[in-house]
Amino acid sequence: MDMTGEERISASRDAVWKVLNDPDILKACIPGCENLDWISDTELEATVAIKLGPVKARFSGKVTLSNLNPPLSYTISGEGKGGIAGFAKGGCDVTLIEDGNETVLAYVINADVGGKIAQLGGWLVSSWAKKLANRFFENLGQAAAAA
């Protein structure tokens, strides 16, 4: 599944970039995130608990930052395993565009799921993923504006 969108944030591009690279803020912005810790300059370990329809799962995995172009853009990608619930993997290209006193965060997401979650049906999974992405970017915008 692929998703694109943008979030207008009432903060400078530098402030948004800092928020995008702060694991404590990211943890608070990611729905269901239980832990998010740096393990190297470009890798984090994450655990996220989700409920999608009748399926509850805790996904654990690594997140990698690549194509770093501070404070303009980067790619964040990862893969998580959720036991019998299945797996989720994907990536997101993030671009920050200054617009006066605000920043437009543009994103392109590609994601794939397998296992029990994939059996729920493409429409349900896609709808859930869009809601999750929207909630994350709204939370991130609020955190950047408050920082």
Automatic annotation (TrEMBL):
CDD domains to which the protein is assigned, alphabetical: CoxG (cd05018)
SUPFAM superfamilies (alphabetical): Bet v1-like
Name this protein carries in UniProt: Carbon monoxide dehydrogenase
Originating species: Phyllobacterium myrsinacearum
